[in-house]
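User: two proteins, same treatment. go.

Assistant:
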Amino acid sequence: MRAARIVAPKQFDFVDLDMPQAGDGECLIKLEKVSVCGSDIRHGYGPIEPEEHYPMPAGRPCHELAGTIVESRTDAYHEGQRVIVIPDRGTGGLMEYLVSRPGRMILLPDEGPLDEWVMCQPPGTVLLLQAHGHPASEERTCGIAAKAASA
């Protein structure tokens, strides 16, 4: 499997990795779309990380991902379903395949392009905060929209 790896400040290399294996309760997802988040740019491309942080783990950064399940070892999802994947901390999506647990996946409809569905994550952050009561209904807020990039 191919993956990108940041090996020096603002420098990527492609590496070959073993194909990940889904364990019990997990799914193997073929990643098809990646969105670059503002935190990916801040942590992955600048400011410059200390020298001892290079090379970074393969696949990092990029944590807004969409793809198709190619193997399922859980009753929660099945092969062929499309999902948004939120990788575990320290893992990224600049790779062909990723193993994930159901709690880190969001089922997508069969219709609609994945490059549009992956863009659901930025507004999803706002909805999550609202679900947790932030801001409170009596508070005023200002929303600032930024366009994310999808590839």
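Protein 2:
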Amino acid sequence: MYTLVPKELYDKDEKKTYLKYNTKVNDSDYISADEINELNIKNVYIPYVNVNNLLVDKFRNINYFHFNSALLKRFSMQKELKLFCSCQHK
């Protein structure tokens, strides 16, 4: 449950609006946004609050982000083009 929004169009008060077109958003949902400076976008998503709360209880202070944010940052650093293909025959 995420969407990517260009920074120029991003408004922190509209996070729920960005997501409602891709998924069902409840009034009680907490919505986060990661900044991906390398691509000039925001990754808006609903974090797993239960998991985050469990980790905060265990480790006190955590930083969390959506897995796509990490992937996009990493992919943006690659200088050469690569293609990976996984084929299965059934």
